[in-house]
User: What shape does this take?
Amino acid sequence: MGASVFGIGLSGLNAASLGLSTTGHNIANANTQGYSRQSIKQSAPYPQYTGNGFTGLGVRVDTVARSYDEFLTRQVQAAVSQDSYYGTYQAEIKQVDNLVADPAAGVSPVLQSFFSAVQGMATNPASLPARQSLMSNAQGLVNRFQVFDQRLSEMRAGVNGSLVSTADHVTALSKQIAQINGQISVSSSGGQLPNDLLDQRDQMVLDLNSLVKATSIKQSDGTINVFIGNGQNLVVGGTPYSIAAKPSASDPQRLTIVYTQGNLDAEIPETMLTGGKLGGLLEYRNKTLDTAANSIERMALVLGQTVNAQMRQGQDLYGNMGTNFFDYQQSNISLTHTVAGVSTAFATVSLPTGVKSVASDYSLTFTGTAGSEYSITRLSDNVSQTVSAAVMGTTPTVLGLNWSVPGVMAAGETVGISMPPAVGNVLSNRNNTVQALPPLLGGYIEDVSKVQASDYEVSFDGTDYQVIRQSDGQRTMITGAQFTNDAQSLSVDGLKLKFSQGSAVAGDRFMVQPFTGFSRGMSIKPTDPRVLAAGVPIVSDTQRTNTGTGKISQVAVDTPSALTTSSAVNPALKNLVNITFTTPTTYTLTDTVSGATSAPATYTAGQTISFNGWNLKIDGQPAQGDKFSVKPGTSQDADGRNALKLGELQSRKIIDGNRSNYQEAYGQMVAVIGAKTNEVNIMSTAQTEVLKQAEISRDSVSAVNLDEEAANLLRYQQAYQASSKVIQIAQQAFDAIVRIGG
Assistant: This one.
């Protein structure tokens, strides 16, 4: 009996001792991150059969279990991933929002100052101080664009740095999880779970989810496999895998996340990395930083191009046609004829090597006369040069440009030419097929009213081309036949793209960044304020001998085309044109330079008459023989008509298919970023609360309660003391039996 009672007391003593140790362990780790409360699980062993029935043999401790709920733990992991995603996005987007929306440091105030200076020149076009003020304010506007470009570039560099450190941290965690997986597998082989190691691993997975959304699957040996992205293995049992931030195959300046396996790197689609810090950084860069940069650069380009076109329509104080006000990189162009829907290149105009731009428009005329078939005119100063067809075949440099015309123009045909803004950057994908003559894709901005604030990816499948707009994923298919018919060029969203060398093969891809570096290369072209073209180069006139009551309005130059390859003015704009009334209700137009006279046209009072790129109105009732004319103007100091047209650009809807002006386009970008910032702020606050509630739910199961542990200490202390008493009594009984036997 003594031995039996002694064993029972000893088992109770051991159980109480283990209970005290476990409770002490809980108390010691009450503030340990990721620790789950542990408790002993005990049961009565199989009883011993005697003639008097089954007799208990004390207590047995089956295991030390942790208070753990897998569902609640996964809930916290998911909440941490989303909380980190929105927290990262919030911290980054605030920088852009503060930059673009600043009422003092944004683009809006300097844009307003620029147009106020334009109005000042329009009010007093002869004033050199007013002209100098316009140049100074324009320089301030360019400086602001360049500051924005620099700040956004710094933010992009900051994102790259964060991607590198975050990817390295993910890789480090994968190695730690794999290592602890091995320890858990060995420790679990005896049938008991290593609770503290399991808690450490859960905390590592939680830390991993704060960096990138990860999925874990438990294996039969107690290990877990961890996956990220669209199923990439990060940990398989005791084997870790790595990710890294490396230059993208499409853009070496843009880091992307790659999955590394041996010596091979595979880019993980950024849309698959949806949570954690990595997901927040990538989403911020793609949806906010790129949008802001492209929107501001597009605004700078459209402003520069439209102001230049309007300036080239005017006349300066020297009596010359206006020239470009803003200077930026221009592009070579191919001129095409379109006949029956088929485009054929008939001329190529290019900038000489090392030349960034030209300030004037040009005209090219095929005279059809032997020995001097072509006439090239620089419209700014009306300087002309004739070139034979034979010389044209050698690509001569004429008036600052290289010309190549194979001679398919019609006799007497005249084409007005402008050198367009060049596309900022076109990058060949690193994985493109290696060719002896690598394809070089380049191009220019063809239509400023259609350009979108986005980059583009061009891919070739061996037959057709696909252009993907990166801002919204819109796809445009361009068949090989279209490419060939359109003089071997691709046209999309106001861009004209062409291979200047080689050609694509199946699988080749190219990243087109239309506006990259535009504001960095932008500057003010004139140094003399007198060359600002505030006036209009033509005037209307009335013959003094007219007998009717007809009155002619002041002539206006037609609004410049949004097409950047067309000259801002008709090459015949300054030709003297006579408007002669053959009857009181009919008139003819005679271009005294070309000698051509139009067929009689019906006159209606107040109607608009358009010719040679100008328009005007005649009111009243002219008499037969009355004559009006449009002729070149002089360098009149008081003429500010073109300056007024420059001022009208501020409110003219030019951008987004003629739906927005400069301020509206900028305001829309600010509003979009502001709305996104507000959305992210709200979601971050909400997600923080979701995480808090998830942690409360988990902690209600797993966290250590010091009051409860204090009660357990007393309970196990009393159990220990009682078991000790049982052992003491058993010892006394055994001693008594021994004495009786003695």
